[in-house]
Specification:
Length: 164
Amino acid sequence: MNVFQNREEKKINVLFVCADNARHSLIAEALLRSHRVPGVRAFSAGIDPADRADSFALSALTLAGLGNEGLWPKHWDGFANPKIGMFDVVVMIGDDAANALPRTFSGAPEYIVWKFKGTEELRFHRGVWRDIQVLRPHVEALADDLRGTLRYGEVPFPTANAAE
């Protein structure tokens, strides 16, 4: 047995929070999981969770090869319980989440705000594809950072019309 076999890997827990956890935070969770960063676990939650996930988001994630296993709306306070465990990174997607989310998580997580505003004009699959494309570079930067190469997701968001 060598020293690497005996070393315990530290798990890094990342929580994505948006207003309703029906679309944007679920997309971010699926994107980060797809990177398979060793030791990193992704979760998502909402300030006021929807009754169900956006069905167009779930099908688009499947079509994009990202999978949608384990993705459903959950309330943020279920993750703030100290008995659940600690988060290392809490990413708030959009100003609504950033303004409404109490910073009551155990430990000392890094809080990150991604300025993101979905648009009601782009609904159904077209809107989901746009959201995936806008969120993808931020999640990729976060994944790179978690591998030790960047600072948490510092990629500027384009304006809402730039991705159309």
